[in-house]
Amino acid sequence: MLRISYHSKRSAFHLSSPDTRPTRADAARNRTQLLAVATRVLATEGAETSMRAIAREADVGIATLYRHFPTREALVEAVYSDQVDRLATGARELLTENTPAEALRRWMDLYGQWIAAKSGMLDTLLAMVESGDLAHARTRDEILAAISSILAAGNAAGDLRSDVTATEVSALLIGIFTVSRQAGGAISSARLLDILLDGLRPHGKN
Which of 15, 78, 104, 162 has the least CB density, counted as fewest CB within 10 Å? Predict the structure, then answer.
């Protein structure tokens, strides 16, 4: 329906269409929904997933998807950054609700989700790293900082060994998830993570 406004100073009528642009709240919800769906779909269906399929799964129009993420690379970078942010904030939140050892074990699951999402967009990520569009070193630093914060809390509480570094834990996690994926489910990553956590506890605390 058209709205008619009358401006007395100019003695003229002006026709205008109602504002159909999404509100900021709607836009934020759409973006969050798109990121959640893209993360899940890329992790399960991989690089062949189309932008249109992601929009359909998120129950938004393709125009809405492209308004938030103009290119596939923009969407992949947003998913990647969102997952890294979740690892960083997740470490802090888990430490407020769990013992350091429990926080580390739960954080390992978050790390596994990030690995799964990353594997589904690996080709795009590698191309972006090579072109300089993605700061891989910064991501690594953020992940190591998250691990270090949990290890430090564990050392202070006597909950985790003090002679293990974040770099070593990161390498062990990469190895576990790589082996588990290559085994096609024959090896349980959850069991391997439990074994890893036992090895990270001080002697006598297993």
Answer: 15
